[in-house]
Predict the structure.
Amino acid sequence: NLQVNVAAAKADIQPTMWGVFFEDINQGADGGIYAELVKNRSFEFFKPLMGWNITRKQFQEGDLIIMNRADKPANPRYLQATVKNAARGDLGLTNEGFKGMGIKNGLRYDFSVMYRQAAPGVKLYVELVDSLGKTYGGTAVDLSQAGQDWHTAKASFTANATVPKGRMRVWFEGNGVVDLDMISLFPSDTWKGRPGGMRADMIQMLADMKPGFVRFPGGCIVEGYDLDQRYQWKKTIGALEDRQLIINRWNFEFAHRPAPDYFQTFGLGFFEYFQLCEDIGAEPLPILNAGMACQFNTAELVPMEDLQPYIQDALDLVEFANGAVTTKWGAKRAELGHPEPFNLKFMGVGNENWGPQYVERLKVFTKAIKDKYPDIKLVNSSGTDPNGDRFDYLNTELRSMNADIIDEHYYRRPEWFLENARRYDNYPRTGPKVFAGEYAAQTDKVVSIHNKNSWQAALAEAAFMTGLERNADVVTMASYAPLFAHAEGWQWTPDMIWVDNLRAYGTPNYYVQQLYSLNKGNKVLPITLNKDVVAGQDSLYASAALDTKTKEVIVKVVNVSGKPQQVNLDLKGVKSLASQGKLFLLQSNDLNVVNSLEQPKNLAPVESSIAIKGKAVKMEAKPYSFSVVRVAYK
Ligand code: AHR
């Protein structure tokens, strides 16, 4: 008999409560949501021709060479082709894409290239092919502008078959010397049809969650393996050819499955992240480097006296997001097509940084940002060891600084999540709020390649999240991590959404997150079992919320045992309840069940109606189940 007191609604549940954590890990951005199909489009990877293969009918010394110009430090390399009496099929280049290119039958593909040739003479032909060289559509590309300047050529064509792992080939025809750079191919079915945009199926999965916020761009890539490889937002906006790429931090070890050709091209940059947040109604939460590289690898620090440029980046970011179009960075935003502000309210300084070095730097950041922008809420990092000394040290320091929001990360075994459902019950009710910024149950061990997105993990998270919701006066934001993984290009598991080149599916963990987010409510309600919170008694975990806008009571019940349990939800403090409510059920008798590309909805929520008599809702908490009940009240 679980008692819910609707009249005792107290704390607000913030609109930001359930959000998403995005990082370019596991091909999250390049080869993921960034829909560019060409890998190493600007020849700037370690090896200039990574991702490309040359096809020649006849060897000709120096026909394809990489040039390096001094006037373009952000993108110095380009390809120079010397073409002699070539017919289509004589000299060409094939791009392998990111684990191939997903080609869709009947879809338009948009090719573009920057080129320069003194006199017109060379033509290009672009086509899609499979691994055997069979073609699936293509077109001629007009390179007729001549002279010393660079021009952009564009050409579109329609694919005539679906090929999961296609490639793109360009053929040279004619006579002459031509310089090429930024060789690009996008599908036309991007999110909102934006040219050069994002992969719509992946973004749709985010939109379907209605997340309260998007945290970006990470994660460890904020810090970088060393400071040279840290994320610098100013290098990610404006013309694509001027966005200087860097090696992805997940290219390296600790990545478990290193990928030597994993780079951040920044085709997806801060402007696009802000736009994405706006599209899906989520608050943007950018995280900036605190003058410290990733402490798991090196402890490279910026000396205090050199910290100013880092702080300036933070100040300028607020101006970029919110400033009037008459300000320097507001004008930049307007120039990029968004004169209206993005209404940035939150910003993080540091990711998984710790020790007195972090605190020292954070204090300077905080003062500078708060002096200029007192309303921006700052997220501070408290490390990765929720029960350890490092965490205690930081929490004490951050509390004494009166931090706005403390970012806690927990990658732990499922049992930890069950044992910690009361983690915030006795947390101080005044002072900093908590952002559960990265969490995921690890079925094998932390950062093991054997971790599974199984129902066992997702169920434990669902149970733990009742504790987050119950403590929504303290915990104001939470996000599972990491978000995306490509089935052939991942470094880290478990992950919430898995994809290949053509498909995407949500794990059971995704559906847990989605159920919470879509059934958030705006006030916490007490739900008790014998006057105690429901946090593991008889293997049950529960939380309750009120949606004062729709006038519904929302109850979440998690049963982590293999036995069904009869639950009577006794709703006090209402005049009456509707005679029918809604039940969203996520359940399997098999804790090892997973979803897959082949069986994407093996485990997915099932909606049904639930009959209600009087002021009580009788329901069965099925074995290993997560139930969400919505009931209208008067
Ligand atoms: O989510 C993967 C990584 O885990 C993040 O980049 C980092 O913040 C954490 O250690």
